[in-house]
Amino acid sequence: MIFGLFALLSTLISAESTTNEVTRDYCSLPDAIYADGVSAADFGATGWSYTNAANWADFVVTCGGSFQSPIDIITTSSAQEAIQPQINYKSKDASTGYEEANKPYTKEYEGEYSEIEVTDASGSVIRYYAKQFHIHTPSEHTIDGKYYDLEIHFVHQAIQDDEQDCNKVKNKLTVFGIMFQESSSATDYEAFKPWFDSNVTGEIDSFDLNDFFSKMSDATYYHYNGSLTTLPCSQTVNWVVFQQPLPISSTQLKQFQDFLSDSTLFPIKHNNRPIQNLNGRKILKGTAITSGVTEIPDVQGSFAQIIAMAILITLLIQ
Ligand SMILES: [Zn+2]
């Protein structure tokens, strides 16, 4: 009897644990896009680098298109956006960590964040999954001509499911850009440490993406339609660039800069694409709501496990 119950319990528990595996369906992209646009093996191998960024259209014709990124954001010519979006990453499973992606041209994590709703430049609300984030130094976007020390890109890809028709999603990628500026009063970000810790094997514990946004006292952003900033330069990105830079310590900034000191891969010691022409595109301005963001939930026993344990205890004490 007891053995039968154990068998039943283990079935219940293993059935529950398999439901934790994340399977996601994304809107397909027009190009064979791998993460930030290009596979690690292609960097350098096919001839593109930041030294020939003016000639990327020779490699992929899209890179010479009219809606390319990054751009200089002229704050005085931006129009107010009607909808004020909420930055609120939902219910990340605390047991799911991040993997370091093997990219020679940036530092990048890939993870399994849950969905976020984002309003695109036409006013439509689109649901995305957060997929990865990576860094550029110095910044790619400039604000009124000013470069910042570093820019993080949070990359989100639109969800394919019964509730969202990918044919109606114009911008299948939304990227949030956050600026960082060196500051003597900055404390180190835990999230960045594993990139440079030789004792870590490319995997880090979960952390909350909301933390970056909750550190902003002013969540003013600029919003426009653009492209990936690496090959294949696909013009399918809904860009949201935040104005207020977050502080970064000299130590952590130098770690990123030193990463770009490989004279073969980075003879010019940066990984930011030059500013592209706006070509008449509209830039919208707004302020995101970042208060009241969700926390990562504690790992708790599943309902099935709790019920199963209660049955077992009841039977054992009889
Ligand atoms: Zn990027």
TrEMBL record:
The keyword Signal applies. Keywords: Lyase, Metal-binding, Signal, Zinc. InterPro entries: Alpha_CA_prokaryot-like (IPR041891), CA_dom (IPR001148), Carbonic_anhydrase_a-class (IPR023561), Carbonic_anhydrase_a-class_CS (IPR018338). Its cofactor is Zn(2+). GO terms for molecular function: carbonate dehydratase activity; zinc ion binding. Residues 1-15 form the signal peptide. SMART domains: Carb_anhydrase (SM01057). One of its GO terms (biological process) is one-carbon metabolic process. Residues 46-287 form the Alpha-carbonic anhydrase domain. Belongs to the alpha-carbonic anhydrase family. It catalyses: hydrogencarbonate + H(+) = CO2 + H2O. Its EC number is 4.2.1.1. It comes from the Eukaryota. The keyword Electron transport does not apply. Reversible hydration of carbon dioxide. It holds the Pfam family Carb_anhydrase. PROSITE patterns: ALPHA_CA_1, ALPHA_CA_2. This is Carbonic anhydrase.
